[in-house]
Design brief:
The structure is a single chain. This protein is an alpha+beta fold and 311 residues long. The chain has one domain. Helices cover 40% and strands 13% of the residues. Strand 1 and strand 2 form a beta hairpin. Helix 1 packs across helix 9, helix 1 crosses helix 13 and helix 6 runs antiparallel to helix 13. The chain is globular.
């Protein structure tokens, strides 16, 4: 299986992950693959509203990256469908954390389907835990360590049309979190902010992006309430708001997924250390009701009565 997404040499696993998953339409495709069990082109066309050519390109990229597998449809000769691979199924925790953030930080979050643990019946967001010691983790008891010479070169070698986002069906809740992770540059900037990067020059040193693009992304994240510029720093620093820190779980699982997707790649230059046990954080989800570790098959999403199942 070729895991070098978009057929380019992976210079950094985290950068490659942001290149692949830092995309609104890609995350929408994966979300509906889990929640609606979408596996056919026309289903995603209906759910996303994306132009057919753009949707075709995204599905092809996910197949090339080993996230989806294109397989013959049962009972047909020339028709195919797309199934999540083991690597694709491993994005489940990322999407659960996206759901949890939407539930807490968007005005319409209460209309989202409920997250239910089948064994104990608990309803509500899970807790992020450290796999090594079993304790719960937050941004306050972890340290995100960034190597001094880290360089995240975000370049896919294939231009991705922006029409996918513009053509997708409106979803205010999803729009809000997509401000932070819905394109590769915003995802990378948010990730670096979680790692403690604050100054314009520091962001640019790691990302090597143009000043204009970086300024636009930083301003967008400030407008979305993810970052703020404290007056005591003369407006020269960008710091995470509580809303921005709420994305910690999303990025913890993105880093873990990068290690899974690119096991033979070079060091990413970033790690999250759990201060309580001193180990590199391997994140997992735990039920708040019974403390059991949660796997994909142990939970379900239940739509609320009267709410469209496509929400």
């Amino acid at each position: 299986m070729n895991r070098n997404c978009y057929r380019y040499t992976v210079s950094n696993p985290v950068a490659a992950t942001f290149d692949l998953l830092g995309d609104r339409l890609t995350l929408t495709i994966l979300r509906h693959a889990f929640t609606q069990r979408a596996c056919r082109f026309n289903q995603w066309l209906d759910y996303t509203g994306a132009p057919p050519a753009v949707l075709t390109a995204r599905l092809a990229a996910l197949v090339e990256a080993g996230v989806l597998a294109r397989v013959p449809r049962a009972g047909t000769v020339d028709r195919h469908e797309y199934r999540l691979t083991e690597l694709g199924l491993a994005t489940w925790e990322i999407l659960v954390c996206v759901w949890a953030w939407q539930r807490e930080w968007t005005a319409e979050g209460a209309r989202l389907p409920e997250f239910v643990h089948g064994a104990c019946g608990h309803r509500g967001p899970p807790m992020l835990m450290c796999h090594a010691c079993g304790r719960g983790v937050t941004t306050h008891d972890t340290a995100v360590e960034l190597a001094e010479d880290v360089l995240w070169q975000l370049t896919s070698g294939r231009r991705r049309s922006s029409r996918g986002a513009a053509g997708a069906r409106a979803d205010v809740r999803f729009d809000e979190i997509m401000q932070a992770i819905g394109d590769r540059w915003s995802a990378a900037v948010t990730g670096l902010a979680l790692a403690g990067v604050r100054r314009f020059g520091e962001f640019r040193e790691v990302l090597r992006m143009s000043p204009t693009t970086l300024t636009e992304r930083l301003n967008r994240l400030c407008e979305a309430g993810m970052l703020w510029r404290p007056e005591d720093a003369g407006g020269r620093e960008y710091r995470l708001t509580p809303r921005g820190r709420g994305l910690f779980g999303v990025f913890a699982f993105l880093l873990a997924w990068a290690d899974l997707a690119y096991p033979e790649g070079p060091e990413s230059g970033i790690r999250i250390r759990h201060l309580d046990c001193g180990e590199t954080l391997l994140p997992a989800l735990r039920c708040r009701g019974c403390d059991a570790r949660l796997g994909r098959t142990a939970v379900r999403f239940e739509p609320l009565p009267g709410v469209d199942r496509k929400d």
